[in-house]
């Protein structure tokens, strides 16, 4: 396992991190705990979850898993998040989280899902920073961090405020151009940097032929190549992988075991090879899934990925019918209220895409 500094906190974290969002069988606690133990035995010491993952079930599973790690004397750091911003709400949140996680303090506590600078300003006005600083003084949390979905100049502006010790943000081989400016602030402020969705929410392994430019040899698995692309970024502290199964853990550990760092020049070559058409893919976070018209937007956006990846409407239509069992014309129910685009962490043109899908008619 490779370990890197988490900013200027003095903590050494594993370059491969465990994300608690994608357990295939969240109610099978024994399986989930085995996954955490397997990862920890392989050297993973960064475990990330959130209260919204499986409606707090992920935090509960983590609580049992972390207890098992303690029993086995396996080291770990914890990370979780909050949408709350007022002191009373935050107090209730952190107390519940500590109970679920079965720990005394959270190592890396994130202001969760900053999707706009206005959103951040509103949370600040509610006193979130003052409260989190108080929690840190009380020993309930150790480091104040942020989970951001901003892009381009906005993410750099957020991080340059200098109020955070680390950041969690989406970054992968297909969308790296939209968030590269984050590294300017990460270096300037000496922040810990954790990246999520390293495999594009499954898009990269599902379309390996489109990501051949990442491979260093023809027989290298595309998952390993995609992780290696990120690991070669010296400013990244942790690459967070959402594991669904024990096999996923084994595959990631195997990729790490075989990892040999490339040069900056080699990384630059891979970036040059990346096609601009890969940007704009939906990663399936499902934050848009509160449509007042009951349109299953994440499913439509997942299907639209197929068009972006193949340039074929037929691929989109097949994904809708064969994978999701829905019809293109269902997207016509969109009233362009904008709620989905406001919630979208990637700032995708959802309304336009829904209209395009609806125009297919079938």
Classify the beta-strand content into a percent band. Answer: 5-15%
- Low-pLDDT residue spans: none
Q: Which fold name corresponds to the CATH topology of the largest domain? A: TIM Barrel
Task: Count the E strands.
Answer: 10
Number of domains: 2
Sketch the topology as an H/E string, one letter per element: EEEHEHEHEHHEHEHHEHHEHHHHHH
CA gyration radius, whole angstroms: 20 Å
CATH-assigned homologous superfamily of the largest domain:
NADP-dependent oxidoreductase domain
SS-based class:
alpha/beta
Distance between the termini: 50 Å
What's the mean pLDDT score?
92
Give the strand order, joined by hyphens, for the main sheet.
Answer: 3-4-5-6-7-8-9-10
| Fraction of helical residues | 40-55%
The CATH architecture of the largest domain comes to Alpha-Beta Barrel
Q: What spatial form do the alpha-carbon principal axes imply? A: globular
Description of the molecule:
The chain has 16 helices and ten strands. By secondary structure, it is α/β, with parallel strands linked by helices. The chain folds into two domains: 3-275, TIM Barrel, CATH 3.20.20; 297-358, no CATH class. The strands form two sheets. The chain has an eight-stranded parallel beta barrel, surrounded by five helices. Strand 1 (3-5) and strand 2 form a beta hairpin. The model has no long low-confidence stretch (mean pLDDT 92).
